[in-house]
Design a protein that fits this description.
The chain is α/β, with parallel strands linked by helices and 290 residues long. It is 32% helix and 14% strand. Strands 2-1-3-8-7-4-5-6 form an eight-stranded parallel beta sheet, with helices on both faces. Helix 3 runs parallel beside helix 4. The relative contact order is 0.18.
Length: 290
């Protein structure tokens, strides 16, 4: 495995600001423990940060970096999984308490559970989660592990947090049951993709604050083959951005993450695409912030 480096996001264009001068705090979390097919998500955060040096400041509509982008030290993922979750929660809560927005780079999708715990620990009690993913991640446990990437959204709904799923196209009967039990909202890939749906309308009773989690495998493998569990029939590039923006126009985005990116050695186009996706999402938040 190559030596990991963690340059600051967009470091070719901007200097590292003071934490209190930045709207976005980028948090690298190179956690990889329960991947169940291909590996490599532990290399995702460093690859995204490295590729961000090739980005333009102007994202086509605005300069998200004008809002300030601070890159945090990576979370220590060398300890056991429960401690990693606590470390992620502590780092996330610290970002929120500084009045900034967490932008978390994974790592496997289990990371999102730690982020959600951190938001709650920081005193944010009424918020929902919108998820782009190929998989429902609603199993009670996977291979006996409650902290599996395949169970992360079950941990979220167990906390009483409303969930809206987008682009799902691989799930089991158990997950379908939990969707009904917990009142999970969803528009699956067979509806979104086949009908080229570019926006959604959140239910009136969905919380006004939203954390948005993006699993790279939610996009079609033609866009991102660089993930551990690719599934055909996924979202397109512009469709993903448009769906995110449709939520940002209706609700206050309090943070987002980009999970399950597994770089393919020698194919830097995907590293750049993951970095651009992260920056594009920052831009959408910047332009729609309340």
């Amino acid at each position: 495995m190559k030596q990991l480096e963690y340059p600051i996001f967009l470091g070719s264009e901007i200097d590292q600001p003071a934490p209190d001068k930045a709207m976005f705090h980028v948090l690298p979390v190179p956690f990889e423990k329960t991947v169940s097919y291909g590996g490599g998500t532990g290399l995702g955060p460093s690859s995204i940060l490295e590729a961000s040096w090739q980005l333009e400041e102007w994202d086509g509509y605005s300069k998200p970096c004008d809002a300030g982008i601070y890159t945090c030290e990576p979370v220590d993922c060398s300890v056991d999984a429960k401690q990693v979750i606590d470390n992620i929660a502590t780092a996330t809560a610290n970002i929120v308490r500084q009045g900034a927005m967490p932008v978390v780079l994974g790592g496997e999708h289990t990371v999102t559970y730690g982020v959600i715990k951190g938001l709650v620990d920081a005193g944010i009690s009424d918020f929902g989660v919108v998820q782009i993913d190929a998989h429902a991640d609603l199993r009670q446990a996977y291979e006996g592990d409650l902290l599996s990437h395949a169970s992360v959204m079950k941990r979220v709904v167990d906390m009483g947090i409303p969930l809206y799923q987008l682009g799902i196209r691989a799930f089991c009967e158990e997950e379908m049951g939990f969707r009904e039990e917990f009142g999970v909202h969803f528009k699956d890939a067979d509806e979104l993709v086949q009908n080229n749906i570019q926006s959604i309308t959140l239910p009136d009773d969905f919380p006004q604050k939203v954390f948005f989690t993006v699993d790279i495998d939610g996009l079609d493998p033609s866009v991102f083959p660089s993930t551990g569990t690719p599934v055909p029939g996924g979202l397109g590039w512009y469709q993903t951005l448009n769906l995110f923006e449709s939520v940002a126009k209706q609700r206050e985005i309090i943070g987002f993450d980009v999970m399950e990116f597994a770089p393919i050695e020698g194919f830097h186009a995907y590293d750049f695409a993951a970095s651009m996706l992260t920056y594009k999402l920052m831009g959408i938040v910047q332009r729609n912030q309340r």
